[in-house]
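Q: How do we represent a protein-ligand complex in a form that can be generated token by token?
A: Start from the inputs.
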Amino acid sequence: MAGDVPPETIGPWPKGAYSLYQMSCRGCHGNSANVNVGTIPALNQAHRYLGVKGGRPYLIRAPGVANSPLTDRQTAAVLNWVLKHKTPVNNFIPFTTEEVAKHRQASNNALAERAKLNARMAALEDWQ
Ligand code: HEC
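Then emit the structure tokens for the protein with heme C bound:
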């Protein structure tokens, strides 16, 4: 299956997860990943979802992630790359292939799910 090509063999972009981002994500999220374009969110705050219930699986279930042609392993790699390189995450526990496989079912209504998670984040901030 084409999606099973190891990331390091995919050219001509730089090797590894960055090339996966270039091919599968950049078209929507942009090279810098730090600007909102219409309903396409910047990814530089994506780590905040890790702090609320349901947020971690949501990052896998976001439609552009769940529906990408990438394998589960590649998806874990690109998500880990985004979190490590595009967000100021602390104490990050990397996504695993198994975790992606378990949760990889695209959200039916990602914007509503996102809004619910954002409300959870806001509630956390109020409490602090
Ligand atoms: C077709 C455009 C598109 C593509 C391609 C795409 N995304 Fe997204 N992404 C979105 C939109 C729009 C959302 C907001 C939720 C929604 O409406 O689906 C989102 C949400 C996300 C989120 C959750 C963060 C948040 O603020 O909601 C992450 C993480 C993410 N995308 C990462 C990726 C990665 C990694 C890839 C490549 C594998 C990718 N996206 C490909 C459009 C896209």
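Residues 10-127 form a domain with the Cytochrome Bc1 Complex; Chain D, domain 2 fold (CATH 1.10.760.10). The chain has one domain: 10-127.
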